[in-house]
Amino acid sequence: MTQTIKETKRPPYGIIAVLMIGAFIAFLNNTLLNIALPSIMKDLKIEAATVQWLTTGFMLVNGILIPATAYLIQKFSVRQLFLAAMGLFAFGTILAGFAHVFPILLAGRMIQASGSAILMPLLMNVMLISFPVEKRGAAMGVFGLILMSAPAIGPTLSGWIIEHYDWRMLFHFVTPIAIVVIFIGFFMLKDKKEKVNIRLDFLSLLLSSIGFGGILYGFSSAGSKGWDSPQVYGTIIIGVISLIVFILRQLKQEQPLLNFKIYKYPMFALSSAIAMVVNMALFSGMLLLPIYVQTLRGITPMDAGLLLLPGAILMSIMSPITGKLFDKIGGRILAILGLLIIVVTTYGFSKLTLTTSYTHLIILYSIRSFGMSMVMMPVSTNGLNQLPARFYPHGTAMNNTMNQVAGAIGTALLVTIMTNRTASKAKELGDAAMKHFTEQPTPAAIQEMKQQVMAQAMLNGINFSFLIATGIAVVALVLAFFIKRAKQAEDPGEVKSAAKKMTAKLAGN
């Protein structure tokens, strides 16, 4: 595929446009569902610990499948992969739309994930090989503009649909769009793939699935089951052991499933580390803010969606601007400024009260989104720029995999911190409140006291989690000072090949 696209005189805008539409639909679907989770809980009579698997299950499938995308991108054409990915996504969407029990809904979500896991690395790889390094920032900026418009539309659209229709309409709304995109891809994508002599190492795929899957499942279960559960620490231990064996096997393979040797390129290794740390911190906003807004403040789904709208619009507007700035000044200054904003605003979220104004929340979230727009794309693009072209599929697959793992770890860590802090604070406040009663309180008084104590305790837990997230963001800020403008490294494979040809030529003379 790389060779096919390189032979064209200009970037394949048609292919990129079709891929972006597919990625946009997958992105939109995720943002639609977040606001709907409370409605799904009520309709299907399930707890928060159960419904969160609609998000966790999606991440789990992504974490298992993304490592295989480097192989798939090298083996199959863009057309073949795109149609297969969108077909899986559409089937999962249809299944979820007609689900009347949670297991079917979860199955639909996981099938959707199997399709979207292929789409993003595929699009990133096409973008990397289609544009020269000096124009890549602007191209990635346009890419970010289109994808960031999904979070701008999603929550508000979802809130409106939930208030007027059944939550299943979210899936019914996406289904016809996904089918139309499949037809567009079928007729527009014409690229052909030369036969590549590469085979799938099934043992590596199995070790990767157990490794990443075990770690993701273990950390994702920790919030509901607790760290002392054998199901949690057992799966994490199995995952870590499998992952170590997987990495050692990849280092010995001539054609690894996921090439860990790319971490010898310092800027890629640094960008990967920063992205992982930032993802851990950013999940605090995605996870804790909806709990605060809907559970503690009783804000409607529509208003909760509107709260996120200005920030998402700001990210969309900033994405192409950030891309052009990246081409001119590099990623270091952008990352440092962006992370400073993220640190300050995340700390601001650790000072929430039960009377914090809606306007204050919008402004704080919007400024935080502005900071985010200056970090993720410049940092990851700078790292990928250092890789030789044949390592692009491995670089994009590695980044996506590590971001999924970091997101799951961050989510589990912050949920556990919030849960434990809420429980300890509830006991402390409850004991203090009982001392204020001079005589035996009535059941109504006890019930009112419990509600007030739990609200204050949960607020304290959320604020403390945001404080921890601030500390995590500070780590990313420190790492950002070591960023240097990346130049594409020489491909060791091509150097060896040239040396062999020169040796043969001299021997012939």
UniProtKB/TrEMBL annotation:
TM stretches of this protein: 12-33, 53-74, 81-105, 111-131, 138-157, 169-188, 200-219, 231-248, 268-292, 304-321, 333-350, 401-419, 464-483
PANTHER family per UniProt: MAJOR FACILITATOR SUPERFAMILY MULTIDRUG TRANSPORTER MFSC
Annotated InterPro entries: EmrB-like, MFS, MFS_dom, MFS_trans_sf
GO cellular component, one term: plasma membrane
Domain (Major facilitator superfamily (MFS) profile): residue spans on this chain: 15-488
Main location: membrane
Domain of life from the UniProt record: Bacteria
UniProt keywords, alphabetically: Cell membrane, Membrane, Transmembrane, Transmembrane helix, Transport
Lineage: Bacteria, Bacillati, Bacillota, Bacilli, Bacillales
Stored Gene3D superfamilies: MFS general substrate transporter like domains (1.20.1250.20), Multidrug resistance protein D (1.20.1720.10)
Topology in the lipid bilayer: Multi-pass membrane protein
One Pfam family, short name: MFS_1
UniProt protein name: DHA2 family efflux MFS transporter permease subunit
Native organism: Neobacillus novalis
GO molecular function: transmembrane transporter activity
Protein location: Cell membrane
Family recorded in the similarity comment: Belongs to the major facilitator superfamily. EmrB family.
NCBIfam families the record matches: efflux_EmrB
